[in-house]
Amino acid sequence: MQEVTLDMSGSLNLAVKRCFPNAHRVTDRFHVQQLAFDAVQETRIHYRWEALEQENLSYEQARKLQQTYHPEVLPNGDTLKQLLARSRYLLFKHHRLWTREQQQRGELLFTRYPVIQKAYQLSLRLGEVYRLSTCKEQAFKKLALWYNDVEEAGLASFRTLARTIQNHYLGILNFFNNRATNAAAESFNAKVKAFRNSMRGVRDIQFFLFRLAKLYA
Predict the structure, then answer these.
(1) If pLDDT is split at 50, 70 and 90, which confidence band does 4 have?
(2) Is the model more confident about 117 or about 168?
């Protein structure tokens, strides 16, 4: 075997290293970019909790003064709390793919929370390293520039991501040998899990495997 695509699990890396010592270990692109998306969402969730807390404090203050509390309503009809909650899915997409409603919401979000915009841009730049690099050397240079952007941004979640990438950079750079990915295996694994969940668990493993083979073989 010449190449094995896997995630960043230490036990799996060790197993592949022992079973296929001469194979190139490729860290799957999906898992790296998923960590970047998680870092963006962590930043958004941080501000969402702040907005919730501020709304609770404002409500309590209004109640003490025997007044009616009216939250700020943005031009698209969202309150700050709703803006942060409803912006979840647009942060997974490139801004070129946003709908008109998402474009308006994204502009409001980035105007109010420039740190979220900074995190979103860092995730896009990491994706561009994969999309635009044609060889290891080029990818290594682009990753070095991305590290500099992360240091300048000062976001804790992305610093953690940068250290994770640094610890697995050999496997990440091996992706650019043949651009191998285990997307097909991940897709099939999702189908198996969905099939298992639809049966609300498995009691007879042999019959489950039989049905699985009939459906997907």
Answers:
(1) confident
(2) 117
Residue-number span of the structural domain to which 62 is assigned: 32-167
Per-residue pLDDT band for 1 (boundaries 50, 70, 90) equals low
In this structure, are 125 and 160 located in the same domain? yes
Q: Which of 77, 145, 151, 88 is nearest to 116 (CA)?
A: 88
Does the pTM exceed 0.85?
Answer: no
Whose CA is closest to 5, among 19, 25, 21, 20? Answer: 25
Q: CA–CA distance from 153 to each of 17, 81, 149, 162 (Å)?
A: 36, 25, 6, 12
Residues 137 and 37 grouped into a single domain: yes
In a domain, 119, yes or no: yes
**Helix 29-64, helix 114-132: angle, nearest 10:** 170
**C-beta separation of 55 from 81 below 8 A:** yes
The arithmetic mean of pLDDT across residues 112-135, rounded, is 94
Judged against a pLDDT cut of 80, whether residue 217 lies above it is answered with no
Phi, psi of 114 (to 5 degrees): -65, -25
Rounded CA separation 115/112 (Å): 9
Evaluate whether residue 177 is within a structural domain: no
Which has the closest alpha carbon to 48: 40, 98, 157? 40
Q: Are 176 and 133 in contact (CB under 8 A)?
A: yes
Please give the tally of structural domains in the chain: 2
Q: Are residues 162 and 196 in the same domain?
A: no
User: What are the tens digits of pLDDT across the range 68-84?
Assistant: 888 889 999 999 999 99
